[in-house]
Automatic annotation (TrEMBL):
Composition bias, Low complexity: 53-74, 141-150
Residue segments, region Disordered: 1-23, 45-157
Compositionally biased tracts (Basic and acidic residues): 78-94
Name under which the protein is recorded: DUF1214 domain-containing protein
């Protein structure tokens, strides 16, 4: 799944220096538009925001992931899984004593019974003009703006057995002469603090402080609430996203999207007659999820008020909320996706904790521009983790200092940090706890609220003068209202929309070299694709199967430490994978004696343990991932595929194939649902 972009095409990374007068004038004109809009908004509301003139520390936390383990595997398979888990634990433990270098990488990226809350009905449209609702929305938005706008608010926290004290140090606000502030410690000190081993058992519990002008930053994610994902910040973001998705601008844009999605599918699936009836029925739900995803993306446009936002998530019901799905562009059932807005002009500290169930794969990727190209990646093997599982990552425009680990360098075009937990055994592995803090940089502003640093960051970030200029107008409560959020979300849908959807469909249906449509039921050989995580390989294809047919896949994982085989509908999203076995990863599947895996994709259950259900679809997409690859190995993954009739299936399966009874299948599905509920169960907390 590609990480959230904000345009179909990114801003050119190498054209700034060669920009001609016309381009410069155009960009300055764009800045003028932002400032003009800001001035217009500021005139009637400045009195309400007069206290929001300085920037405070901001933090947020979040965490999650998805996948399920098979109950049909034999004792040897169970032993293999235990060995894998042990190996992951050992590998992570070893990083506490070894400094490693940061790699580079690139990235992007159903409800069965419940409909997403992003659906827009007549009532929702009417709500957008309802005085009472607008008043409540504006009031809530202004309250949120006051709490998140630059101020000297204190928050408590501990990470790696220490109290890390932070404060946003604004370039535009030097300390008053009578109250001088202590200088901000360099990022390297934070990273080194995270890896400092506690000296003597009980003494290690003693609190040590690193002073940042006496302001404490809380890390609620590190307290390991019932779900590391279910943080107060995440719940609030979900409420905002669901409200935004019901706004009138989004409702209108969804009509445009529906037309564009359908046109793209007719073209991409032309060899099989376009999308079939079942996929057409799923179109409205897919657009609802796409719109809700954009409503989350709107909330990560402001790098001056960062938060950890979990999105690209399935529908879930927790904390009294019925949250619609926000899946899009090949979401992975095994992966938790979290995003943090960042900008080169600021410094950030990311605090986190790994729990006993270490993920099969874990990455932090720095995404560039509006297209989401990855410039830097920090993987689990590179992460320096303390003995108690906590870690600190710094991110800034500066390169890592000599000997510094856990650092991500931001460029002029950096917009997001994407964190992914990929879970193999859903019932054992846990997503990490995670929080982000901005510790220095320009004040928060209306320009930042409206996404200016994302859309024009390549121009602004390298000019202190322009950065100061666009930061003149403070954040306004009206910019957090539903009408404004809805308008920005609709713009995101407009610039991404059907063109991006067609591009992702084409990964499965079109030969990138010739541009010709590919035949169904043929998987590509695993290869790197710029639309996905850069340090993974993908095998893509689409299927067209009758009820009595099956697609048999023979998979050689090569040097991959993890792989997964999910099924998608024509709109590139998963369906009810928590109640149906519509995906399998190497932890959940049973291996052949030679280390390969044989999977059976079909509508009907053939009774084999390694069955991947199509979820009732006769037509759909398969997008395999191969991750945790050994960079020094020449053992490349491989995939073979063949269509057979179910009555002839046994002739195409290995002699060692494991079959399951109806009771064993039910147990397999129950284990799967339990693993899903571990992440998204209906927790009662409020």
């Amino acid at each position: 799944m590609r990480s959230p972009n904000f345009e179909a095409d990114g801003l050119p990374g190498s054209s700034r220096g060669a920009a001609g007068p016309g381009k410069f004038i155009g960009r300055v004109g764009a800045l003028a538009v932002f400032l003009g809009v800001g001035a217009a908004l500021a005139m009637p509301t400045a009195h309400a925001d007069s206290d929001d003139s300085s920037s405070g520390s901001s933090s947020s936390s979040s965490s999650s992931s998805a996948s399920s383990s098979s109950a049909a595997a034999d004792s040897d398979s169970d032993s293999d899984k235990a060995d894998k888990a042990s190996a992951r634990k050992t590998r992570t433990d070893s990083t506490t004593d070894t400094d490693t270098d940061t790699d580079t990488d690139t990235d992007t990226e159903a409800s069965g019974d419940s409909e997403p809350d992003g659906d827009t009905d007549d009532t929702a449209d009417t709500d957008d003009t309802d005085d009472t609702d607008d008043t409540e929305d504006d009031s809530a938005a202004e309250t949120a703006a006051e709490s998140s706008s630059p101020g000297q608010e204190d928050v408590d926290a501990s990470a790696a057995g220490q109290v890390v004290e932070l404060q946003v140090v604004e370039a535009a606000d030097p300390p008053a002469p009578e109250t001088p502030q202590a200088p901000l410690a360099p990022p390297v000190d934070l990273a080194l603090a995270a890896t400092t081993k506690r000296q003597a058992g009980a003494e290690a519990a003693a609190t040590t402080s690193q002073s940042y002008a006496g302001v404490n930053v809380a890390d609620p994610a590190l307290t390991n609430q019932v779900s590391p994902l279910g943080t107060p910040q995440q719940i609030e973001r979900e409420k905002i996203a669901m409200s935004t998705a019901k706004s009138l601008p989004v409702a209108l844009m969804k009509l445009v999207l529906r037309f564009g999605f359908l046109a793209a599918a007719k073209e991409q699936f032309a060899l099989v007659g376009g999308p079939d009836a079942a996929n057409r029925e799923a179109l409205d739900r897919a657009i609802d999820e796409y719109a809700l995803a954009a409503a989350f993306q709107q909330q990560i446009l402001n790098p001056m008020d960062p938060a950890v936002v979990t999105q690209v998530a399935p529908p879930h019901n927790w904390y009294g909320l019925d949250v619609g799905g926000s899946r899009l562009l090949y979401d992975n059932p095994d992966t938790i996706y979290r995003f943090m807005p960042v900008n080169k002009t600021s410094e950030y500290v990311i605090t986190g904790r790994l729990y006993d169930g270490i993920p099969a794969d874990l990455t932090f990727s720095v995404l560039e521009g509006t297209a989401g190209t990855t410039s830097t990646i920090l993987s689990l093997a590179d992460l320096d983790v303390d003995e108690d599982g906590t870690f600190v990552i710094t991110a800034s425009g500066e390169a890592a200092a000599p000997g510094q680990t856990n650092h991500l360098q931001l460029t002029s075009r950096s917009t997001l940090i994407a964190a992914r937990d990929t879970l193999g055994d859903w019932t054992v592995e846990d997503p990490m706890g995670l929080a982000v803090h901005r510790v220095s940089g320009p004040r928060n502003s209306l320009f930042a609220q409206l996404g200016g640093f994302v859309l024009l960051g390549g121009l602004v970030n390298d000019s202190p003068l322009l950065t100061s200029l666009v930061s003149l107008i403070p954040p306004l409560g009206i910019a957090e209202s539903r009408p404004v959020r809805g308008t920005l979300t609709a713009l995101l849908l407009l610039v991404r929309g059907a063109n991006e959807q067609a591009k992702y469909m084409a990964l499965a249906t079109t030969d990138p070299d010739t541009g010709e449509l590919r035949a169904p039921n043929v998987m590509t050989q695993p290869a790197s694709n710029a639309e996905f995580l850069a340090n993974q390989l993908q095998s893509n294809g689409y299927f067209q199967l009758a009820d009595d047919e099956a697609l048999v896949l023979t998979i050689d994982p090569g040097s991959a430490g993890f792989f997964t085989v999910p099924v998608y509908n024509d709109w590139t999203i998963t369906d009810d994978y928590w109640n149906q076995q519509t995906s399998l990863n190497d932890d959940q599947a049973v291996a052949n004696p030679d280390g390969t895996y044989t999977m059976v994709v079909s509508v009907a259950d053939p009774g084999v343990a390694n069955w991947i259900s199509t979820g009732g679809l006769n037509q759909g997409i398969i997008s395999m991932r191969f991750q945790d690859l050994d960079p020094d190995s020449t053992d490349a993954p491989g995939v073979q595929s063949v269509v057979v009739r179910l009555e002839d299936l046994d002739e195409h399966l290995p002699a060692s194939t494991v079959y399951v009874t109806a009771a064993e299948r039910a147990a397999q599905l129950a284990t799967r649902k339990a693993g899903f509920d571990k992440r998204w169960a209906p927790y009662p907390q409020t």
